[in-house]
Amino acid sequence: xxxxxxxxxxxxxxxxxxxxxxxxxxxxxxxxxxxxxxxxxxxxxxxxxxxxxxxxxxxxxxxxxxxxxxxxxxxxxxxxxxxxxxxxxxxxxxxxxxxxxxxxxxxxxxxxxxxxxxxxxxxxxxxxxxxxxxxxxxxxxxxxxxxxxxxxxxxxxxxxxxxxxxxxxxxxxxxxxxxxxxxxxxxxxxxxxxxxxxxxxxxxxxxxxxxxxxxxxxxxxxxxxxxxxxxxxxxxxxxxxxxxxxxxxxxxxxxxxxxxxxxxxxxxxxxxxxxxxxxxxxxxxxxxxxxxxxxxxxxxxxxxxxxxxxxxxxxxxxxxxxxxxxxxxxxxxxxxxxxxxxxxxxxxxxxxxxxxxxxxxxxxxxxxxxxxxxxxxxxxxxxxxxxxxxxxxxxxxxxxxxxx
Length: 404
Ligand SMILES: *Cc1c(COP(=O)(O)O)cnc(C)c1O
Hints:
This protein is α/β, with parallel strands linked by helices. It contains 15 helices and 14 strands. The strands form 3 sheets. Strands 4-10-9-8-7-5-6 form a 7-stranded mixed beta sheet, sandwiched between helices. The protein has a 4-stranded mixed beta sheet with strand order 1-2-3-12.
């Protein structure tokens, strides 16, 4: 058996489709974000990041960094194993209390990532609850899809952001079904926001559990960063709220919040919680500082809104097509994988602008795009420079079209 040959055949197929993933090699430098050092071939030494999920620059926040460094100095590096064996670090409990408070819930449970929190929670709910049926929005994140798959329970896919379709599908379930409705608030590829209140109306009508992923909203929406559900006053109607500490909070880790019984249930049965080493105490302390900071501070959220609106307005003024949505995510549609990758390469090499192409299978074929996430640390000059670069490339692309 020539295994390398087998691997290579599939890699070659990816390359042929234009869907082979190439990662930039970057080095973040404290205090310079969104400017980073680039180690990628052919790019300038310094580039500006336009697609980070460190949406508010909290990964460079002095308070958050100090919390991490102080805790390493006080407690060392690792957690020493699973919580099952090594016990709860005091810092884990403090962070869980902070997160439960953020979402107005009884309790919270930490995981090593948002991916693991979705995977472990949905697979545990789906496999343990009698007659469980998970009703999943058609555009749910891979971590939810994998969790549902692993649950091996019945599943139903409902039309993206369509409460009427959900209503019909819930109505069609057998009377003894235990329905769990899984969806996101902000969908990160299109940047659209779920009609949460309408979805909850439907859940309540059918007695279904509601499970929301607020990964792309926590820290950024709501007066204390509790997400879109906080902004809309809906948190108390949701059974389980899931989030990440790795994006707007600038650290790493994932979590769920809910009732005492729900959290104790997942803690007691979820393999993905029990059998893996807990987050380092220093990470928990940094995340706590970040969550606390964003409960109080409005500056980051306000500046992010301002810069998002500014980039949208400038793109409109220059006729560069982008999706109009109600979030902080600005997808510029290219609709061709090869061209999308090429635009991204030119932006990086000739303009020092880093934006990763978003291709299949992250998004459906034919909807390839560049996805911009302006933040509080992008200056007005950064925005002007980006728009100038896109304008130049759009002109060149149009010429390429005409010749072809
Ligand atoms: C990134 C992401 C996750 C996973 O969170 P991590 O903390 O990065 O593992 C979960 N859900 C959605 C919608 C995401 O985009």
